[in-house]
Amino acid sequence: xxxxxxxxxxxxxxxxxxxxxxxxxxxxxxxxxxxxxxxxxxxxxxxxxxxxxxxxxxxxxxxxxxxxxxxxxxxxxxxxxxxxxxxxxxxxxxxxxxxxxxxxxxxxxxxxxxxxxxxxxxxxxxxxxxxxxxxxxxxxxxxxxxxxxxxxxxxxxxxxxxxxxxxxxxxxxxxxxxxxxxxxxxxxxxxxxxxxxxxxxxxxxxxxxxxxxxxxxxxxxxxxxxxxxxxxxxxxxxxxxxxxxxxxxxxxxxxxxxxxxxxxxxxxxxxxxxxxxxxxxxxxxxxxxxxxxxxxxxxxxxxxxxxxxxxxxxxxxxxxxxxxxxxxxxxxxxxxxxxxxxxxxxxxxxxxxxxxxxxxxxxxxxxxxxxxxxxxxxxxxxxxxxxxxxxxxxxxxxxxxxxxxxxxxxxxxxxxxxxxxxxxxxxxxxxxxxxxxxxxxxxxxxxxxxxxxxxxxxxxxxxxxxxxxxxxxxxxxxxxxxxxxxxxxxxxxxxxxxxxxxxxxxxxxxxxxxxxxxxxxxxxxxxxxxxxxxxxxxxxxxxxxxxxxxxxxxxxxxxxxxxxxxxxxxxxxxxxxxxxxxxxxxxxxxxxxxxxxxxxxxxxxxxxxxxxxxxxxxxxxxxxxxxxxxxxxxxxxxxxxxxxxxxxxxxxxxxxxxxxxxxxxxxxxxxxxxxxxxxxxxxxxxxxxxxxxxxxxxxxxxxxxxxxxxxxxxxxxxxxxxx
Length: 723
Prior knowledge:
5-stranded mixed sheet, globular
């Protein structure tokens, strides 16, 4: 016990965080492969072979990540059945659906998104720009709340980056693509003190003019710039103690609304580049702007206490993002019937005192302290266990502003909606899991977690003064702050049996939970799930074929749904009382020859709202499927020809509740081809080869609708050199 206390004190002394620091969920450090070549995952917070973990998991090793060009969270979602990700109006907003469990705007993610042990505590924190130096990606489907917490109601995405190397090494990479899209990245790693202190430094730069062209010929509307810098120090003063310090900063700027246009009729939601729906229109000089900065610092400490491993992860994350854009961007004056506040706008022809245009002014800032304190037993024993404590404090400011630009000697703003909300969440949780080998091959796993969130929402006049504006509580009394307390216990019980060393089946009952949240003063209730799952994991034909499958049923209560409305505050969150979800998924990997490999999967999700009409739940396609082919042909002793094709099918779905605004089936194809050497590679690539476009959201707007949509085809060349 004294040794444990000394290690914890050492960690908190070295960290730059204060005593109020909270806990971030993580996974134990592990090598990417085991001796037999199997992928190692840390889904259960310990290193295990993927095929030995009785959960539905899709994992990507470093070679697959490089071959597929995975460098964004969107790329991850696009390669996993029963998972879809829709980019939002802002670059930091990623709306993910996994097995029918969806995102609520301004709410908590439906999955635990973890990078090197640090868990994202907002939807915006999931979008961290380009993923650098990734060693392994694990996508866990089904409730993972017993270990990962209240945000893991749909699953978890665990990303592990490469540790600093013991020998000096580095790489540089550059690409050029359509839209004058330039990307530069690189990094170096090596020892500072042999066998004791190691470092890695990496950076990324991207600048593009954009590829979404306006219908009226004024240029592209999705220009963006991003700069990222990351550094890591690994200190191992002895064989039983290590300190891992990480820091990163990302700055991004871009045009807004970007991939957004207006349509006059909801029936046109799935129509692109036609006379009735030609695409985005802009008046020159009135394109909006978005700025985003993300700072991330964490310290991980691990100590071997003989009977178990004691670990802590202390983290700080700060996200600052703002957006300003105009509304009526079609050419010429806009009549009052098509404006936000019912006033005619005159654009560049406005006389002094007249309305030039209407605008939106948005801010979403999040500051989070988090911490995880955990004790994990050794893996080579009959009873394996883990216990932990999680703490978190998140302070956020949300600004929702809209108004008019008035012509004059200088353009002035008149705010007709100007709302600031200060939101504070204080979270804590305790968790435990035990796995016991009843007999050889038969494992029983029992886990449970208690989570609590004390939330407060204060409407303020200005974030600099925090002067509250009284608001009515649920009883109608005027109060300075609206308060809510959410808590839940989420259990998991699992039985697995290994019929042979290569075939395993499992049964699971688990529950999921997600905290409620405030959205522009509106309170969304917490939601919960009960999940029943049966699964199979197998490796056949001398491990040439890996085949995994799972079938599930989910009882989904109080599903959180956020929708944009045509009147202030323009967005509201409601709860769907009861949704029944049934489905299955299967994935396989086939090593046909030493040169040719196939992989793929299929997913089915039937999410039915239990109302009189038995409607389909929103943004949940019934069918999704993936397929990849990778071919590597030696050209010489040191040079290989490489190629890869990735296919994705997404079934039809509805963008809003009550089965309105249907989206048809979509098919997407990406391809990469080139040559690889031990030190360098040259590849050509094309993204969205079929130039498929899809609406991602649809909102009523002054008698019309606005929609966001996926980008069109892009293509380019990529060069990489290692040293």
